[in-house]
Amino acid sequence: MKVRSAATLRDIAAISGVSVSTVSRVLNGTGRVSTETRKRVMDAARRLEFRPNALAQFFATGRSHTVAVLAQKATGTFSMPVILGIAGRLAKEDVAVVVYGAEEDDVGARPENIRKLHARQIDGLIVVGDGNDRVLPSISHLMDPPAVYAFGVSDHAEDPAFIPDDRMAGRLAVEHLLSIGRRRIACVAGPARSDAMGRRVEGAQEALRAAGLDWARPVMHGGWTRKWGRTAAEEIVGRLGSLDAVVCGNDFIAMGLTEVLTARGARIPDDLAIVGHDLWEQYIGDEPYFTSIDPMLGALGEAVASHLLGLIADTALSGGVHELPCRLVVGHSTGTPESDRV
């Protein structure tokens, strides 16, 4: 089967009855051209399925229509949804994405990363971290194109950065528990040094205070692991009569907690309702057992890409941290999931 050769500016000019230079002005959006002429040229381009040569377009407009993503963990469970959201949004604008991985604590610091990015003649850069606690080294001053930071913040306060709203996450967890009649709520949190965890606890406390309540026991801090959940459960199991709900720092903590409590005869959610964070089960394709906070990382990636497109077009305001909404997904650990309700 013979493949049809790609259409050229000369082909479009011949069909639309104008000069090659006029076709170039129309397709590049430069110069003054009448509405009728513009329509003839665009109609001819569509009929011929014209696709501009990337190199020629770069020389004509100074734009490569390429954005680079520099990721801390390009294949990480939580980085991937962000990157997919970025790629999906940019694809709608016919912008290509090139992804570079980097050492976890060395994003953008290595000279070879900067050289690669400059060699690509990119229009913009998105640096993707591996969590809200990550402070990423700013490389904006090393790059001419604009840069935006995602799922992590830059160490330069003026760099635009997008992260999930952790305080909102804490509020949503407690407000849901209050809505199902739980009042004696404990918190099994992640590390005390975690700023993200601190913001979630603050948001949860705001919701408790609004209801005239406080934690039923002091917040318990530990790791992000099932092991910590199991350890915390040993303390909680003797207090089941004084508690009716637990907010967990993440779903792994909730898993460890549930494992021990159910082995000791506790009924979830009858005796104890549990809320996690990260909506981990969506990544392994399971129905949600745990009610959990979804940080909506795909939507975050889309928002980052939209902001960068605005910076490239000089229509977006730059600077500062943008906290994006998250949502609560109901699972069996606090009652009947919405998907199971009649």
TrEMBL record:
Annotated HTH cro/C1-type domain residues: 8-55
Record-annotated membrane-spanning stretches: none
MF annotations from Gene Ontology: DNA-binding transcription factor activity; transcription cis-regulatory region binding
UniProt xrefs under SUPFAM superfamilies: lambda repressor-like DNA-binding domains (SSF47413), Periplasmic binding protein-like I (SSF53822)
A family per Pfam: LacI
InterPro entries according to UniProt: Cro/C1-type_HTH, HTH_LacI, Lambda_DNA-bd_dom_sf, Peripla_BP/Lac1_sug-bd_dom, Peripla_BP_I
Database matches in Gene3D superfamilies: 3.40.50.2300, lambda repressor-like DNA-binding domains
Keywords from the UniProt entry: DNA-binding, Repressor, Transcription, Transcription regulation
SMART domains, sorted: HTH_LACI (SM00354)
Domain HTH lacI-type: 7-61
Protein name listed in UniProt: Transcriptional regulator, LacI family
